[in-house]
Amino acid sequence: RLLIVDFGSQVTQLIARRVREAGVYCEILPFQSVDDAKIKAFDPRGIILSGGPASVTEGQSPAAHPAIFKADVPVLGICYGEQTMAKELGGSVESGHHREFGRAEVEIKASTRLFEGVWQPGDRKQVWMSHGDRVTKLPAGFSVVATSENAPFAAIADESRGYYGVQFHPEVMHTPDGAKLLRNFALNIAGAKGDWTMAAFRERAIAQVRAQVGKGRVICGLSGGVDSSVVAVLLHEAIGDQLQCVFVDHGLLRKDEGEQVVRLFRDHYNIPLVHADASETFLKALAGVSDPEKKRKTIGALFIDVFEAEAKKIGGANFLAQGTLYPDVIESVSFTGGPSVTIKSHHNVGGLPARMNMKLVEPLRELFKDEVRALGRELGLPADLVNRHPFPGPGLAIRIPGDITKEKLDLLREVDAVYLDEIRKAGLYDEIWQAFAVLLPVRTVGVMGDGRTYDQACALRAVTSTDGMTADYYPFDHAFLGRVANRIINECRGVNRVTYDITSKPPGTIEWE
Ligand code: XMP
């Protein structure tokens, strides 16, 4: 396995993704947390130093901890990582007067194990640069293996120690050969085996769950989404009927979703499942609530109450299973709050484990979202579930601006179903991050047949995104949009006008509330 030391780059997680794609397990540690004990405990085959926003030429800038170079394993420094490595090993770095941002070209000057089978001396190759500073004097033992117009030390190597530095970012798509370079580092230089696959993960995770749980009983909240579904099936494989699933149905799901969850888990997988239909309770609590944050809080609090009541009814559970993912547990580098670190934690049923004296089982803690999907496929979950678009916890409640009623929910379910049906038929579902309809609190005049209508308007939304943090609207062709609008108005009584939302994020958000 490999260790990635994070200096706060926006794309550190991409380094981890590329290394794992090479079949090598890796974890990310913020630079502040590195010390001899941590490195010894993790026992990495190699270490990668990420980029970061700081400048090593400033006094207080984060430095690569000496423990990294004492570990006697190969090290690859990327961008800021190259600079801090060079400085710590006795070289020097200067603020560049010629900044390089975006596409650049490197010229390969010498062969190195890092480029083996990918780049030859004399090649000119496209890379992605994003730096102001640059290395100006090499530490002893290093030589230049590639240059760029503004970075005479665009890539440096000390083959004997297995130390490499690149000024460019091999982890991003705009460095087309970057993944191969990272693979060379992980497999050939660091000597990792490359046998980290989902099949292997499945075996290991099952063994770990068995060891943790013993003869205990586990409660798992099922939502119908990818993460909780994968957790449930994995746990069932590990501990059989010591697992009890609870599906809190808040009535804010899409058309037929509740029945699908019950059918799949109870009927197909034979997993003990309580279907708590609490839609009436939720509707009552939401009556007259229009403020988006108040909706979220109402739903969140009620969800916990219902879940707790069901768990108590079942009784005797020692563990609560959660679909926490790796991005939720990575400690993030914080420059604003000094050396302190922020730990993001995902609590779907926050506070419950402590309240009910349960321990957490989180078998997906090490995985990225697309790895969870791969694990779902490995476990034989249906493709349409594994590839399902993200769906917010508060469900359709935040897709109906204004107050929520049963009638509005039913109408939105119909509109949404028609829209998604057309997207699937057009073969576009997997190209889109998220697609959904919003029922607007607006009435407009229309004409149907010979009659006047005065009905609601709806908005359609579809975005592309890689992580939900930024998004672009999906460029449907006009014929497609016309077809969807036509079907919605003909099939969904109560809607007589359809609009398409072309806002990107930022400045918009994906959801309307
Ligand atoms: P926004 O609307 O913030 O959405 O651009 C980003 C992603 O988060 C989802 N989302 C939520 N998920 N509870 C959730 O579990 C929420 O309250 C919530 N609000 C937004 C949204 O669907 C998108 O995937």
From TrEMBL:
Which parts of the sequence bind ATP?
S223, G224, G225, V226, D227, S228, S229
Q: Which residues does the UniProt record annotate as the domain GMPS ATP-PPase?
A: 196-388
Q: Which reaction does it catalyse?
A: XMP + L-glutamine + ATP + H2O = GMP + L-glutamate + AMP + diphosphate + 2 H(+)
Q: What is its EC number?
A: 6.3.5.2
Q: Give, as in the UniProt entry, the pathway in which the protein acts.
A: Purine metabolism; GMP biosynthesis; GMP from XMP (L-Gln route): step 1/1
Query: Which residues are annotated as active site?
Result: C79, H169, E171
Where in the sequence is the signal peptide annotated?
none
InterPro entries attached to this UniProt entry? GATASE, GMP_synth_C, GMP_synth_GATase, GMP_synthase, GMPS_ATP_PPase_dom, NAD/GMP_synthase
Which keywords are on file for this protein? ATP-binding, Glutamine amidotransferase, GMP biosynthesis, Ligase, Nucleotide-binding, Purine biosynthesis
Q: Which GO terms describe its molecular function?
A: GMP synthase (glutamine-hydrolyzing) activity
The record's subunit annotation is: Homodimer.
PANTHER family per the UniProt record, alphabetical: GMP SYNTHASE [GLUTAMINE-HYDROLYZING], GMP SYNTHASE-RELATED
NCBIfam families hit by this protein:
guaA_Cterm, guaA_Nterm, PRK00074.1
User: What does the protein in this record do?
Assistant: Catalyzes the synthesis of GMP from XMP.
Q: What is the name attached to this protein's record?
A: GMP synthase [glutamine-hydrolyzing]
Species, as recorded: Reyranella humidisoli
Taxonomic lineage of this organism? Bacteria, Pseudomonadati, Pseudomonadota, Alphaproteobacteria, Hyphomicrobiales
